Amino acid sequence: GEDVEQSLFLSVREGDSSVINCTYTDSSSTYLYWYKQEPGAGLQLLTYIFSNMDMKQDQRLTVLLNKKDKHLSLRIADTQTGDSAIYFCAEDMGTYKYIFGTGTRLKVLA
Amino acid sequence: DTGVSQDPRHKITKRGQNVTFRCDPISEHNRLYWYRQTLGQGPEFLTYFQNEAQLEKSRLLSDRFSAERPKGSFSTLEIQRTEQGDSAMYLCASSLPDRLGRSNQPQHFGDGTRLSIL
């Protein structure tokens, strides 16, 4: 079945690391994505990982993929107030549509 | 270079009216997608075009919904006889095909059209 789950909220202090988690159910996923959505705006692509990779690093962002457990995480180093937003993971099963999670609202406390 | 552009940003209408939204994809992207996002949820896939051909439609796309992409460039999404449940953010995305023809080029989203039904 198609289901992507995320925890709803995460609160961190400015300068700390944030880790946002995602679990998915379809093992045929080819790519997995992280998007950021600020209030009233669309989705901004942050990073993505191919399903045969375990880790991808892009500046302050680190994506970890555990394909056996169907678990994806996004770590944001040195979290800033501008990182406050809703973060969505999405899986691409090669059928042209993405399956999105419900989103994790990240609040960064100054 | 501009990203995906959607118009209007906001639409308020009375129940029963027809509405039409427009999406202009990134210029070299031949794939275009429509999603719907309700409050507190992630986007849900509605339909997908490759050039002017509509290749997939979700079960969410009832017969009151129609999407077109007549020249393979911009796309329109029309909702006829709007209902309260149609209130949502309608997001458009576009992407390049990869060399193997599979859709693993990332989708880039516009800022959406927020529809409110009175």
* Helix percent band of chain B: under 10%
Quaternary status of these chains?
A: heterodimer
Distance between the termini of chain A: 40 Å
Number of strands of chain B: 11
Indicate the structural class of chain B. Answer: mainly beta
Low-confidence stretches of chain A: none
Q: Which word captures the global form of chain B? A: globular
Please report which band the strand proportion of chain A falls in: under 5%, 5-15%, 15-25%, 25-35%, 35-45% or over 45%.
over 45%
The assigned structural class of chain A equals mainly beta
Q: What's the helical proportion of residues of chain A?
A: under 10%
Question: What does the overall shape of chain A look like?
Answer: globular
Give me the Rg of chain B, rounded: 14 Å
Query: Separation of termini of chain B?
Result: 37 Å
Q: Uncertain segments of chain B of ≥5 residues (pLDDT<50)?
A: none
Order of helices and strands of chain B: EEEEEEEEEEE
Helix-strand sequence of chain A:
EEEEEEEEEEE
Please report the number of helical segments of chain B: 0
Percentage of β-strand residues of chain B: over 45%
Mind describing the biggest β-sheet of chain B?
A: 7 strands, mixed
Q: Largest contact between protein chains?
A: A-B, 26 and 27 residues
